[in-house]
Amino acid sequence: MLTCCPSDVSGTRVPPPGTSRPALVARRFSMITTVSERVQHELLPRVSKPNRYLGNALHAPHKPLAEAEIKMLMAFPDAFEIGLSNIGIRIIHHVLNQRPEVAAELVFAPWPDAEAEMRRRGIPLFSMESHAAAAEFDVIGFSLQYELQYTNVLNMLDLAGLPLRTVERDARHPLILAGGAQAFSPEPVAEFVDAFVIGDGEEAIHRVVDLVKRGKREDWTRSTLLRRLAHVDGVYVPWGYETRATVEGWQTPVARPGFPSRVRSVWVTELKSEYYPAAPLLPIGEITHDRLSVEIMRGCTRGCRFCQAGMINRPVREKPGQQVIEEVLRGLAATGLEEVSLVSLSSTDHTQIVDQVNALADALCATRVQIALPSTRPDNVPVEVARRMAAQKKGSITLAPEAGSQRMRDVINKNHTEEELMASVATAAREGYTGAKLYFMCGLPGETDDDLRAILDLAQRAHRAARAAGNASFRITVSVSPHVPKPHTPFAWAEQVTTAELARRLGVLRDAARGKPLTLKYRDAETSLLEGVFTRGDRRLGEAVEQAFRRGCRFDAWSEHLRFDTWMEVFEDLGIDPERYLAERSPELDQPWDVVQSPVTKKFLVREKVRADRAAITDDCRLEDVCFSCGVDECPQRPWVKQPHEPVDLPLAQRAATAFGRRARRVHGPEHRRVGGAAHKAQGIATSTRFRIEFVKDAAMRFTSHLDLMRAWERALRRSELPLAFSQGHHPHLKMSFGPPLPLGYRSRAEVFDLEFSRPPGVDLQERLDAVLPEGLQVLRFRPILFKTPSLMSQLEGASYRVRFPRAVQVETGFAPDALASCLARRATELEARRHVLVRRQNEGTTREFDARPSIVTLDVGSEDDAPVLDCHLRFTPRAAVRPEEILLELLPEADPRGADVERVALWSEPAGRRMDPFELLTPSGEGVARSHGTPS
Ligand code: SF4
């Protein structure tokens, strides 16, 4: 349980003699009273990737929480880079923020290092944007996409200081919602979640918010709110259901009086533009899917019998091609991203996919933006699409035959033939792809060892097909995942093979792969076992989730964090046999997930199960223009109601996107600006294509790494629409070179890079850059590079830093300001007098020692605003360039140097003994200066 320090205890600046260090630290905490300040000063300097918690994404709405009637916190129980890659949470975040009375923010699972620091310091779970305590929100809505994220849900509730179970919470606590794919089998986490939204959330979330708002105005009790929520379409309130054991031994929910016996999932009839932000969030930190993701279609009617996503997302709703093109162009203009992904369960099934790819390839070729189709079927890679995409980027194509033999493909209804797969591979090979990743499953119902061997045989024939198409270096990677039977599919009642049997079948695959020119990869059996337990699990498993969380399980989806032994101990202690959850079940009996009615009926699923047993295929209703009555109400794909889209019109889409893109530009004050554009006209600005640019990286960006900073600049440059120059080759890059990296946590008023344009950019260069830069970056000055000049990195010899000591650090040292200044001065003099200064640096698990003395030029103690400051002038010595915080460790061992405020104030070189800045090095007197020293480390 968290213990937050009382905020009404005031501390003195200088602690009395004899005060212990823990007491000092506790007193320092008490000076900082808001969660936001504590996150900034105490947490961010001490975690490995502070960008995960910054909330500085471009286009984040930042609605004032204090003015919002309803505060919603959208939570993703995994790391920031996974969570912000999810389209669903972005959509709901956007949809909610469209309501004037609602402010919605985001939160992701704190990484273990951040969790440890938060618990140590009593910092509660907080939102990304405002750094507000999660418990202050009216609703916390979890996006549940994967079974192995459940312990993170509990950890986040606990870090928020909230009771874990619905029955322990009341109207003072936030309402805990959950949605996403796992809401379709909610029982393992039913005791922790107040209400599940089943299906598409775009419209359902409004109905929930309306009730929460009414409940708040009318002061409803929590039970009143839950009772009313239970009657909202698509909302399941587990509290209204007791459980009863079936003859198979599973706990199934039974409605209490006043609650519906089953809850039907909901779906939106069209993918309206208003669901998608015109200016998508652009995080400064890198995320897993670091590209513009544009949903082009939802649902799939191919009818693969193992695929839950295909069943629960029916019917298919295609976004018109024209809308897709407009959203892509608008999104790219707003973000400057280098890649766009046309997202759906099966992108090449969109009826206008060829028109879309052609139009986008035409529109984007000048900007070198790549187009990606993340999911393509093995049988329908259109030649034209493959050609247009391979023309941009020659990577691997990903195809999912899922099974090796035709018989097995018929069982699972993966309705394609070997000839179609070979044709797709040959097309990809011919069009310049470097290889194919082929995805298969093992452990499918009715699978034999011959079916397993057929996987490798098929992959080998694909390899031959690629060679026959003239691509001798084409590589085939076979990736095999264990089959986990999913609820709401025709295989929902099938047996999942045990861990021992799975190991045997993987052995068969390994033997079959020997001697073949293929790479075989497979997923581990432990993860599959846990997935299998929870995906068809009942309410009893809630106790197991809580016990696993209490014993330290977190991030179970990450192999390096999965504590499988702990999970097995938990199951044993609770008397749960995990492998029993893998057993075959009877479709005649109720199952734990049957309380949820997916878009397709059980009758249809059972019919498909019977057809699977006979290896009989069922066609795609959309392609064959026939309806198999799968159960979708008012299905828009039925042949007699289906409507074609308008043709794609690229110029029209470009005009629409351009009209939208005219938005107010940022205007910076003159405080940092050193030289205006007009002053440079005489120096060749109107004709030059190469420029040196100096910029400020202020406090808002201090926790941004050098790589993230470079990426932020590249995207800002793309947004500026300046005439950028790109390198040649398959992966074109902007022609820019940065100065020495700034350590994480430092700010700077002296960052610099060189940039090349394809033609002179115009005299308003500075204004155009400032207009698109994220908060925390601002151009200080720029100058054309008129002479042949060595690279920036080779020119610079050293840097100067100013170190300031925030009050919390001063208190930590135990010195009054005057005493701190004199102590610093004395110790700096002593350090400068030493012949050697040994520094021990740890980096990614390795420790390196070096003598930092040659790197230290001078250390000067001064004052600024009546507070002591330390100016460090440091040289970039090869592999031994000392950093200011390492000097601080020597000078002030009493304090944690990570709390200091370090600013780089100058970069310099000293040709002929005269210190020159990077701009003076561009003048005739500095021309050609290159240092002979090493690189800053
Ligand atoms: S209702 Fe008919 S047309 Fe619609 S998805 Fe189901 S089978 Fe296909």
TrEMBL record:
One of its GO terms (molecular function) is catalytic activity. CDD domains: Radical_SAM. SMART domains: Elp3 (SM00729). PROSITE patterns: B12_BINDING, RADICAL_SAM. It comes from the Bacteria. Residues 286-519 form the Radical SAM core domain. Residues 917-937 are annotated as: Disordered. InterPro entries: CHP03960_rSAM, Cobalamin-bd, DUF2344, Elp3/MiaA/NifB-like_rSAM, Radical_SAM_N2, rSAM, rSAM_horseshoe, rSAM_sf. Transmembrane segments: none annotated. This is TIGR03960 family B12-binding radical SAM protein.
